[in-house]
Amino acid sequence: MIQDILNSKPTKLFISIAAFFVANALIAECIGGKIFSLEKLLGIAPSNFTLLGQTGLSFNLTCGVLLWPLEFIITDIVNEYYGPKAVRRISYTAIALISYAFVMFYIAMEIPPADFWIGSKKELGIDNMQLAFGGIFGQGMWIILGSLTAFLVSQMVDVTVFHKIKKATGEKWVWLRATGSTVVSQLVDSFVVLFIAFKIGNGWSWQLVLAICLVNYAYKFTMAIVLTPVIYLMERWIDNYLGHETAQRMKRSAMGLASE
Q1: Which pairing describes strands 60-62 and 54-57: parallel, antiparallel, or unpaired?
Q2: 127 phi and psi angles, rounded to 5 deg
Q3: What's the structural domain count of the chain?
Q4: What angle (nearest 5°) sits at the alpha carbon of residue 186, between those of residues 29 and 194?
Q5: CB of 142 closer than 8 Å to CB of 202
Q6: DSSP string over 172-196
Q7: Among 146, 211, 156, 181, which residue's Cα sits nearest to residue 73?
Q8: Phi/psi-derived region of residue 256, left when phi > 0, alpha when psi is between -120 and 50, beta in every other case
Q9: Residue 222 domain-assigned (yes or no)
Q10: How many whole angstroms separate alpha carbon 202 and alpha carbon 10?
Q11: What is the DSSP letter of 35?
């Protein structure tokens, strides 16, 4: 059995893609607690613009958005070669393992700390390591629920839009189905996470939720366009790795078409 797996390039490729997909999603969740200024990163002054009546807005984003665009690229690649069932499989796996990770984080937070460890980083300006540990890993339950729900819903939207476009265009216009499915699913992702985590969980006004949603989506939309060439590069590499005949057979199978 293991020899069959090791000798099958499509199987080895899927395992590698799935492993990266899950690891990337988990890392994005773990670093999502840090908020950074996109303007400062680019070396420009904060925008301080007004949107939907909300003043003082700027591009302050969670570090998780640095990695989430890769998730949607991987989703499109898996969709292209393995089909929607495979996307659902890796999405459910990612959700399960991220949920497991958060349970372990909370258990680790509740375990009594060693006395010496609490003040072990005072020379670095960290007076209480237990509080610092909890501050990093102790994301609110509404944020966790919102993030996981948004991830799952947006993945399903991405799958649906991708295949509808592909059925309409065939093998042409890779950029349209890849970018089109991403920009739609990213909008869903941006709204769902804010709605659950901050509208339901923290009582934000609709105006604030929608304003922050549009700010976040502006970044995600831009990244979806910028990263479109990556889809072509990955497809070219995968076609070369699998061989043109195998790659085409997998793409037809992913669309539910009989192999010629």
Answers
A1: unpaired
A2: -75, -30
A3: 1
A4: 60
A5: yes
A6: S-HHHHHHHHHHHHHHHHHHHHHII
A7: 181
A8: left
A9: yes
A10: 45
A11: E
Could you tell me if residue 143 is inside a domain?
yes
Instruction: State which amino acid sits at residue 30.
Output: C
Q: Is 214 exposed, middle or buried (0-12, 13-18, 19+ CB in 10 A)?
A: middle
SS3 category, 170:
coil
* Two tokens, residue 212: 């922050």
Cβ burial 43-65 (10 Å sphere, 16+ → b, else e): eeeeeeeeeeebeebebbbbebb
What's residue 219's pLDDT?
A: 86
113 domain residue, yes or no: yes
Q: What is the mean pLDDT of each run of 10 residues along the chain (260 residues)?
A: 75 94 91 84 82 79 85 89 91 92 91 92 90 82 84 88 80 78 87 87 84 86 87 91 90 68
Q: State the residue range of the domain holding 236.
A: 2-31+61-254
Among candidates 58, 32, 61, 35, which has minimal Cα distance to 45? Answer: 58
- Helix, strand, coil distribution of the chain in percent, nearest 5: 75, 5, 20
Give me the pLDDT at residue 113, please: 93
CA 55 – CA 227 distance, rounded (Å): 31
Contact 224, 69 (CB under 8 A): yes
pLDDT of residue 260: 43
> How far does CA 107 lie from the centroid of its chain?
25
pTM of the predicted model as reported, rounded to 2 decimal places: 0.85
Q: Is residue 53 part of a domain?
A: no
What is residue 259's predicted lDDT score, i.e. its pLDDT?
Answer: 46
